[in-house]
Amino acid sequence: MSELIAHIDMDAFFAQIEKLDNPDLKDHPVIVGGDSQRGVVSTACYLAREHGVHSAMPIKQARQLCPEGIYLPVRTDRYRDISSRLKKILQSLSPTIEMVCLDEAYLDISNIYKRWGSAEKFGLEISKQICEKLELTCSVGIGPDKLIAKLASDSCKPDGLKLVENNLREGFLKELPIEKMLGIGDKSVEQFKKLKINTIWDLSQIDTVKLKKTIGLRAVLLQRRVLGIEQNKIIDSNSTKSISNEETFERDIFELKQIKQILFRLTEKVSGRLRQKGLEARTVTIKIRRGDFSTLTRTFSGSSPVDITDKFWRAVKLLIEDFELDSRGVRLLGVELSNLQKAGNQQKLFSSKDHDRAQKLDQLIDQLNSEYGDRTIIRGRSLPDVD
Known about the structure:
Blueprint: E1 5-10, H1 13-21, E2 30-32, E3 43-44, H2 46-49, H3 59-65, E4 70-72, H4 76-93, E5 97-101, E6 104-108, H5 119-134, E7 138-143, H6 146-155, E8 161-163, H7 169-174, H8 186-194, H9 200-205, H10 208-214, H11 217-226, E9 242-253, H12 256-276, E10 279-290, E11 295-306, H13 309-320, E12 330-342, H14 352-372
Parallel strand pairs: 2-4, 7-8
Antiparallel strand pairs: 1-6, 1-7, 2-3, 5-6, 9-12, 10-11, 10-12
Helix pairs in contact: 4-5, 10-11, 12-13
């Protein structure tokens, strides 16, 4: 096994912490997300899930399904404190980690798992240290890339460990319904099933041209991930080899149009900083944190590096294409550029005329904003009334 990624996912993280802090709650269904009727479930412990309660469900509905449940407000500071301790544990085990959110991380274990004898033993060591130092349980999935590792950890929850080697990829994905595929929302599932894509492996077998024509380019990118073409390398949380910008809102956002406008503004900022440093980037990542603190990240890597705002925005639009906004709203948005290199080797991904025009426009906007202040010049797409 030349490359191995471990995905660590804490089990019902917020609810676990509440039970840790209050042992009297141990045998009770605990639901975190607010004690008002208007809130949404952030995390439900596994006892509560047996009643049908799940994250993003309105609290009012959860109370109907589980009236005997213990309903608690979100304690963000406490969860962040435990998350910080979790990160230190993971950093002690691997030099390359990516914290996706408070309770979830990827580790590159390719060159280190053999110290424990096998990948399974290394996975057990992760669980052991988290249990001993935090008194919490986690699920660990190990695979040849981030997708397989994440799906593996999902399949063995709670408090489980699953290794999927590359030669077992096909069999593993044939067992998983398409609903389990990362990046496919409930509305999109119907589109996939119309094409007789019932399992995740089915997605890898359908004709790419037909897939793109019927569902869109986003579906083609998902297909590439299933095939192992889009590996989605770990974005090292300790690395400075990226340029990012994110924004947290005082009030959660519930309009997709506003989300797109903010993402465009963030794209302008990071691409401007990229050009100031004389760099180009090949990879674009967006981060979306919902009102219940669950976090979604999506990544796109182009065939060659660029430094043009419009090119990055095309990638961001692709990544946000099938995002489904729900009652949780959005509390944070972020855009990151990575896989950086010095400018000068850029291939012309537009026609020569379009490429030169886009480049000159970026240079003019950068110059004016530098001389007269940030956002002196803004593009129409970032205005409130422009789609």
